């Protein structure tokens, strides 16, 4: 089995990121979690049911687990939304939407919430994708209104290795993102592991703390109010302490990822699921739903890791080689307020 190189990324929950000093390949051989009592990927399955057009999909396996989730693909899978069984807008919200706060070592105890997927292109280039899962996305406020709240959130960073040396990193941000030269990225106190700041609520990934302006695609507000992401030194989350590892490859000319686990106990089939990891955008009859120029308060859940373009070739961004994909030589500090 291919072994992973020596550098890992750290993401931070809610805010802040750090790295835990780890210079070894640590492949966690996590036993399958108790799906019902934990708050991780499996908990998302235990607390949701597959729906299309707000109706439960008939003929789906029950229970759905990380081992059989991809059976949904044959049931019009790309139109399926894993939809919360309980109301997601009750006060207080269901506990499972709150995820797990990392402990003092940075571990999300009892919750596997990171999936590390490795594409070894066989020519010295290896991409390690760190997929961060969050049970809920709080979209943040613009002019006092919330937008883009949704169930389930997948964000990722990717480290590009060349002959074992990390060269560049991609940080996903709201369907887009930024690439940096690895040497430019702030490191944890061990000087080795890169830091990822996960924005409060939206979980967009940044290399620095502070306030980050970004635009919302499709929301063209006429009064010049920018939506911002906020990151700071919040919780330390070391995602590799509780992660599932898999390799990914692509048959020549194929765009379909082929996932494989590195051992016999890590669930891997779920990575093939092509549907959405949260409720479909609530329709206008849903209490509290509103939109401003097509930007909704409650939006749809995201697609999973398989949709993140895991075959990037020369470029480090998801569009691979087909669009300008600039690797920045410096990081920009967030604005401090
Ligand atoms: C995220 O932002 C919300 C709204 O401003 C705030 O209530 C909450 O405390 C923030 N969370 C963290 C972890 O800073
Ligand atoms: C799949 O779902 C879409 C969206 O609801 C629907 O329009 C389509 O008819 C479905 N296809 C099949 C074969 O059920
Ligand atoms: C992949 O496909 C291309 C185009 O069909 C072909 O030219 C190339 O030789 C193939 N490469 C391998 C390794 O099979
Ligand atoms: C709106 O959503 C509800 C579920 O939240 C569903 O029962 C209803 O059929 C939907 N209405 C339309 C017009 O799609
Ligand atoms: C390695 O292989 C990938 C996939 O075929 C290709 O896109 C990339 O350009 C290659 N990189 C190098 C350095 O040859």
Automatic annotation (TrEMBL):
UniProt signal peptide:
1-19
Q: Which domain of life is it from?
A: Eukaryota
Q: List the protein's name.
A: Putative vacuolar protein sorting-associated protein TDA6
Give me the gene this protein comes from: TDA6_2
Does this entry carry the keyword Signal? yes
List the InterPro entries: Vps62 (IPR009291)
Offer one Pfam family short name for this entry. Answer: Vps62
Listed A to Z, the keywords are: Signal
Q: Does the keyword S-adenosyl-L-methionine apply?
A: no
């Amino acid at each position: 089995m291919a072994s992973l190189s020596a550098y890992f990324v750290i993401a931070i929950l809610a805010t802040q990121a750090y790295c835990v000093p780890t210079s070894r390949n640590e492949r966690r051989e996590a036993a399958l979690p108790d799906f019902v009592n934990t708050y991780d990927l499996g908990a998302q399955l235990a607390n949701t049911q597959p729906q299309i057009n707000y109706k439960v999909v008939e003929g789906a396996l029950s229970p759905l687990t990380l081992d059989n989730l991809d059976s949904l693909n044959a049931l019009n899978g790309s139109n399926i939304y894993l939809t919360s069984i309980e109301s997601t807008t009750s006060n207080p919200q269901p506990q499972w939407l709150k995820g797990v706060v990392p402990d003092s070592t940075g571990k999300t105890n009892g919750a596997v919430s990171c999936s590390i997927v490795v594409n070894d292109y066989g020519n010295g280039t290896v991409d390690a994708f760190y997929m961060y899962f969050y049970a809920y996305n709080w979209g943040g406020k613009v002019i006092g209104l919330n937008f883009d709240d949704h169930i389930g959130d997948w964000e990722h960073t990717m480290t590009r290795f060349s002959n074992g040396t990390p060269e560049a990193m991609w940080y996903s941000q709201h369907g887009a993102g930024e690439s940096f030269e690895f040497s430019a990225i702030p490191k944890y106190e061990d000087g080795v592991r890169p830091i990822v700041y996960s924005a409060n609520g939206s979980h967009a990934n940044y290399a620095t703390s502070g306030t980050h302006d970004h635009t919302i695609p499709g929301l063209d507000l006429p009064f010049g109010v920018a939506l911002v992401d906020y990151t700071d030194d919040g919780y330390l989350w070391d995602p590799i302490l509780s992660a599932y590892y898999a390799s990914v490859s692509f048959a020549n000319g194929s765009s379909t990822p082929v996932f494989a686990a590195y051992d016999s106990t890590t669930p891997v089939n779920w990575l093939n699921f092509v549907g959405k990891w949260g409720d479909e955008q609530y329709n206008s009859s849903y209490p509290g739903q509103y939109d401003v120029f097509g930007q909704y308060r409650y939006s749809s859940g995201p697609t999973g890791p398989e949709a993140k373009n895991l075959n990037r070739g020369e470029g480090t961004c998801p569009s691979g080689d087909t669009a300008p994909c600039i690797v920045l030589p410096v990081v920009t500090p967030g604005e401090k307020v």
